[in-house]
Amino acid sequence: xxxxxxxxxxRIGGNCELLTKIxxxxxxxxxxxxxxxxxxxxxxxxxxxxxxxxxxxxxxxDDFQQVCSRMLEADGIIMSSPVWYGAASPQISALxxxxxxxxxxxxxxxxxxxxxxxxxxxxxxxFAQLMFFYMIQGMIVPGSSYWNVAIGRGKGDVLQDEEGVQxxxxxxxxxxxxxxKINTQ
Length: 185
What we know:
Number of domains: 1
CATH superfamily: Flavodoxin domain
CATH architecture: 3-Layer(aba) Sandwich
Low-confidence stretches: none
Distance between the termini: 14 Å
């Protein structure tokens, strides 16, 4: 059983990455394999709505295929994003848009959910934006003690948001519990 944490921030070592790693540490404590995938430094082009995917293959050749294949292999998927102008980052938005061309619902019944970091505002909209992806894919999203959001601006600031960090830990524990429950049926 494996969970991938996709960091949708271009900032390597930033707040999204810190929270994603905290979540994956909690999941690893439960005996599940984990992997961090940072979109920072990768090139994922947004969907251009050309329709080539209707014939079975996207014409765009970039890093989407490698990220997508790791998502398809995983039992759980956590995606984190900073708030950019009140919405998800361009990196995570491009990843999500490319799933338009992936045939069927290949993420159906996988477990996961979003993590959002905001300096101040926009976190609820960004959280909802990412949740829409999980819902349209037919994924299972466990709850936590609050929404999976935390506050921070500079690198590491998010660690000062004790409630946010605890919410992420609780969410991650629920992800691990649910994956184990599903896989023991």
